[in-house]
Design goal:
The complex is a heterodimer of chains A (325) and B (333).
Chain A lengths: L6 E11 L12 E12 L4 E5 L6 H8 L7 E6 L2 E2 L5 H8 L2 E4 L13 H12 L7 H11 L16 H13 L5 E5 L7 H18 L2 E6 L2 H7 L2 E6 L2 E7 H6 L4 H9 L5 H6 L30 H5 L5 E3 L2 E3 L6
Parallel strand pairs in A: 3-8, 3-9, 6-7, 7-8
Antiparallel strand pairs in A: 1-2, 1-4, 4-5, 9-10, 10-12, 11-12
Chain B lengths: L1 E14 L2 E14 L3 E5 L6 H8 L9 E10 L2 E4 L5 H10 L1 E4 L13 H10 L6 H14 L5 H4 L9 H13 L5 E5 L7 H18 L2 E6 L2 H7 L2 E6 L2 E7 H6 L4 H9 L44 H6 L4 E5 L2 E4 L8
Parallel strand pairs in B: 3-8, 3-9, 6-7, 7-8
Antiparallel strand pairs in B: 1-2, 1-4, 4-5, 9-10, 10-12, 11-12
Classes of the chains: A alpha/beta (325), B alpha/beta (333).
Chain lengths: 325, 333
């Protein structure tokens, strides 16, 4: 029997109008940040979302949480269509869906103490009977590896890794089911990254969480995810179980992306064959005709420039390519 | 042949809270045509070391001692505390630098042609037209098509990877003997990073220049470096050839750092190996080894962890040209 998904996203799009300083034409140019993305997330699963900057991965995360209103498509969370929910309708759902941000410096209010920051969700949604906000906050601080005595300190008194723990504690406060992790370790030093990844792993198990894990670092995504979706220019080009994607990828872009990760082993790194893509990411306001990757693909043929490939099943993977590997 | 010899370099910054020893007795050599990687986390002193070599630190706010002898085309120069007029001669001509963020390193109001030509004019008594010709040559060398037309473009008209190429072209205008690349690919996407690293490798082969590559990415180092210096809290903790240091890291910090990064080529394990604790504050450095409070190996030292916490070990040669700063002895970890 197939498990019922926690979250289902159908053909989601998010366009941003590009404002020009001179409003010469009435025809608005649209930045198609997300352009027809569909996937599901099972309960207790981690879906990795990878791609280069500007591919729309963060926009997907934020649109799912309705931090941006979607342009079109459907978002179904726990069998409830939330696509057109107002912010008042969203409020009870906010308890169940949370987000952890990339930059632990700008995502914490510098004028609030840690106690106030982590306690905010309790003040909004109320606390369990007989418990004070302070005791709940200190419990959480202990759980994420912070010293509960630091309750009255300000964010600047903490290091980057500790600040990220504050952000994680805040997200956990409402006991959510689902957390969007938007590049949670990218701003941290290498020796601290592993601590935070392990913490996220532990919390997932203990609280039965589901993650959407957004990152550009493919090795980190591989470590934490059950399935991985590769995005390019607002579209998912390949979606597969993690091991499958990293050992047997079908889309040329996935191959190039994987081959571009430097391996921390000089012997291996210098002997392996590397695919180096030429050129840069095209502008999302003016994506190539046909396949979005056609302008940089070494296998592209006439069909690729005219006809857009659909996401089709190949083995355990779903791939959008006319000539998959 | 040795191009640069740094001896006992110290850089400290007096602050209200006390003296910050950003670089604390660093010595190393760079040979011609070689790439030396300096690896470390933020605050380990890798960038400050190189800013000191370039004389780019504010003179009144920093204290710099030690020597850095550059065997330049013009003879031997000690780079440390070089008078500003001489420093200007060395910068760009003998040593060039490329930075992490290619957008803020370029001036947004001037065309890239103006900026590249200026770098050439500062050191050569030639006409602007000659400088422009050289600029076109170099832009083509770094892989920018239609170089002549692109000279009139502004930085915002280029993508991140293209801007980094422009900066590399600018750095190469005067045929430098040493190129300092400070996190040159950190701000770039992986596919573009691969392009830039390949370009640097090809240029080095062609121009036979030495490169100091500053980075925190051990994957980048594995592909690009000949020698590696690992820095922690202002000191070099390990220095060895690239194959040696990855195959046989002898400093506990290097060992743990290598173990803590998830690798794309190895099947995932249940948990990542994490280094506990935080990097130390440079204001309150412990008297002993700066890594000792986080180190799992210190219990193996004769005399126990107390020794590591109280006395600073020296950088000693453990194997052929493999230097380690640790109380542990022996040629394995």
């Amino acid at each position: 029997m197939k498990q019922k998904p926690l979250l289902e996203v159908r053909d989601l799009s998010k366009y941003f109008p590009i404002s020009s300083p001179f409003q010469l034409s009435r025809h608005k140019v649209m930045n198609k940040a997300v352009n027809g993305v569909s996937f599901t997330l099972q309960e207790g699963e981690t879906l990795g979302l990878v791609g280069e900057s500007g591919c729309g991965k963060s926009t997907v995360g934020r649109t799912i949480l309705k931090l941006y209103p979607p342009t079109s498509g459907e978002i179904i969370f726990e069998n409830e269509d939330i696509t057109h929910h107002s912010s008042r309708q969203m409020k009870p759902l906010r308890k169940k869906m949370q987000i952890i941000f990339q930059d632990p410096y700008s995502s914490l209010n510098p004028r609030h103490t840690v106690g106030e920051i982590i306690g905010a969700p309790f003040r909004i949604f109320g606390t369990e009977k007989g418990k004070t906000v302070k005791s709940l906050v200190q419990e959480l601080m202990e759980r994420v590896g912070l010293n509960p005595e630091h309750f009255n300190r300000y964010p600047h008194e903490f290091s980057g890794g500790q600040r990220q723990r504050i952000g994680i504690a805040r997200a956990l406060a409402t006991r959510p089911k689902f957390i969007v992790c938007d590049e949670p370790v990218s701003a941290l030093d290498v020796s601290i990254q592993a601590q935070v990844i392990n913490l996220l792993d532990d919390l997932k198990r203990d609280f039965g969480l589901s993650y959407i894990f957004i990152a550009h670092n493919l090795s980190v995504v591989q470590h934490i995810s059950d399935r991985v979706a590769v995005m390019y220019l607002g579209k998912i080009v390949e979606l597969a179980p993690t091991t499958e994607l990293y050992t047997n990828s079908h889309h040329p872009y996935t191959r190039a992306l994987l081959s571009a990760i430097p391996i921390p082993d000089p012997v291996l790194e210098r002997s392996r064959e590397q695919i180096v893509l030429s050129g840069d990411l095209p502008s999302p306001s003016n994506p190539p005709q046909g396949c979005v990757f056609s302008s940089r693909c070494w296998k592209a043929q006439a069909q690729c420039f005219s006809e857009e490939p659909q996401l089709l099943k190949i083995g355990k993977s779903e791939v959008a390519c006319h000539f998959p590997e | 042949m040795t191009l640069l010899q740094v001896e006992d370099l110290h850089v400290s910054f007096p602050t209200i809270d006390g003296l910050v020893k950003a670089v604390d007795g660093v010595s190393f050599e760079v040979n011609r045509g070689e790439t030396l990687a300096i690896v470390g986390e933020s605050g380990s002193g890798k960038t400050v070391t190189n800013l000191a070599l370039m004389n780019l630190l504010p003179q009144r706010a920093s204290r710099i001692t030690g020597h850095a002898f550059l065997n330049s085309r013009q003879g031997e120069i000690d780079l440390v505390n070089l008078p500003e007029t001489q420093a200007q001669q060395v910068r760009g001509l003998n040593i060039a630098m490329i930075f992490q963020d290619p957008m803020s390193a370029l001036h947004p109001y001037f065309t890239i042609g103006d900026q590249i030509v200026e770098a050439h004019q500062a050191h050569n008594a030639v006409s602007k037209e000659e400088s422009r010709q050289r600029a076109i040559e170099l832009l083509e060398l770094v892989g920018i098509s239609e170089a002549k037309a692109r000279l009139n473009s502004y930085p915002h008209q280029f993508s991140g990877g293209m801007r980094q190429r422009v900066l590399i072209a600018m750095a190469l205008m005067n045929d430098p003997e040493l190129l300092i690349a400070d996190e040159p690919t950190t701000a770039l996407d992986v596919t573009v990073q691969a392009q830039i690293l390949r370009l640097l490798r090809e240029l080095q082969k062609e121009l036979h220049m030495a490169i100091i590559l500053i980075t925190h990415d051990l994957g980048v180092v594995a592909g690009a470096a000949d020698r590696v210096n690992v820095m922690y809290a202002g000191k070099i903790v390990e220095s060895a050839d690239v194959n040696e240091i990855y195959a046989r890291p002898l400093a506990p910090y290097t060992h743990e750092l290598l173990a803590s990064i998830p690798r794309p080529d190895i099947q995932k394990e249940e948990r990542l190996h994490a280094i506990g604790g935080q990097p130390p504050s440079l204001l309150k450095l412990p008297p002993g080894c700066a890594f000792a409070p986080r180190c799992d190996f210190s219990s193996r030292v004769a005399g126990g962890k107390q020794v590591c916490l109280s006395t600073m070990p020296d950088l000693t040669e453990r194997r052929n040209n493999h230097w380690v700063r640790c109380h542990l002895t022996g040629d394995t970890l």
